[in-house]
Every structure is written in C-alpha cells, then in structure tokens.
Amino acid sequence: MTALPGLATPRLASPDLLRSVFRRHAAGVAVITAAQGEHPVGFTATSLNSVAAEPPLVSFGIGTASSSWPVVSQAEHIGVHILGEHQSELAATFARSGADRFAPPTTWRSGPEGVPVIDGVLAWLVCRVVARVPAGDHCIVIAQAVAGDPDGAGRPLVYHQGRFHTLGD
C-alpha cells in the first residue's frame, strides 16, 4: 500500500482498524429490548439507524454471541429507547456483560406487544421485526415502528472515543 500525498500510510483492514476508526464517530445511544415470556433482555446499541420514513423502518446491529441474541433472534417485536444525557449509568448497565439489566434502579413496564419499555428515556418505539440480515459476527435487524413516544425531556446521550458524553462535553 502506498501513502497518499499529505496522508499517513494506510493500514490494512482489520477488526482493530475498524474499531479505531469508529471510536472517532460520535453516535447516539439507544437501548434495545425484547422479551420471551417473562424474561426481558436488552443491550446498549450505538448502531441504531433510521432506514425509511414510509414505512417507518429502523435498523441496528447485534452480536450473535450476545446474551440478548437468542431472544432477539426469535422476537416478533423489539423496543428501541433513545437515552438522555442523565442515563449514562443505564447505558453502562445494559452494556455490561452479566448485569441484571432490569433490576432496580432500572424502571420499566410491559409496553405494546409485551415489549419492555424503559421509563425516563427521551423517546421510544416498539417495532415489528421485518428482517434479520447476517453480517459477519453480527446480525442487522430491520424493524418497522408500530407505536412509540417522542416526548421525553432532555438532551441525548452520545458515545465517542469509547465513553458516554453529553452534548455539553
């Protein structure tokens, strides 16, 4: 590989290169939830995207080795929660392996379609899963919004350089 004028010598693509590049990409923070019977699962996601307005579609990635994957892989509906700057501890809890994510201080309720809905978020959606696309060690889930609430108060939580931030940071 040759260096481009004014740029450093490019590195060959690798998982480390991808992680290093995306540490520089600021992303909103969401928690994705699902339930199988009485057993809610959830995880922190920074890969949430708006896909289309008509029909209203979103997508997110989930690792197939994730503890939430067995439930998400079978769920007909999932919850999408946009976290506020006051929820960095909640984001950390849902990102931590082995954590009891739905135990106090997390407050939640069973929402539309039986999906766990977390209280106090900036906005949430319940979505019907329409596709699961294998993507390496992850799966891209595409889901259509069926209900939600955009009216939470506050400013968004952001993930950048491996840490949670507020817009004022």
- CATH topology category name: Pnp Oxidase, Chain A
Structural class computed from helices and strand pairing: mainly beta
CATH superfamily: Electron Transport, Fmn-binding Protein, Chain A
Query: Would you list the SSEs in sequence order as H and E?
Result: HEEEEEHEHEEEEEE
Low-confidence stretches: none
Distance between the termini: 37 Å
Rg calc:
17 Å
Mean pLDDT: 93
Q: Give the CA-based shape.
A: globular
Domain unit count: 1
Widest β-sheet, arrangement of strands = 3-2-6-9-10-5-4
Broad CATH class: Mainly Beta
Q: What level of helicity do the residues show? A: 10-25%
What report would you give on this structure?
With 169 residues, the protein is mostly beta strands. It has one domain (15-150): Pnp Oxidase, Chain A, CATH 2.30.110. Helix content is 12%, strand content 41%. The protein has 3 helices and 12 strands. The chain has helices at 15-22, 69-72, 88-95, and strands spanning 27-28, 30-36, 39-45, 49-52, 57-63, 77-82, 108-110, 116-118, 123-135, 138-149, 158-160, 163-165. It has a 7-stranded antiparallel β-sheet with strand order 3-2-6-9-10-5-4. The protein has a 3-stranded antiparallel β-sheet with strand order 1-11-12, with no helix packed on it. A two-stranded antiparallel sheet has the order 7-8. Strand 11 and strand 12 (163-165) form a beta hairpin. The longest helix has 8 residues, at 15-22. The mean pLDDT is 93.
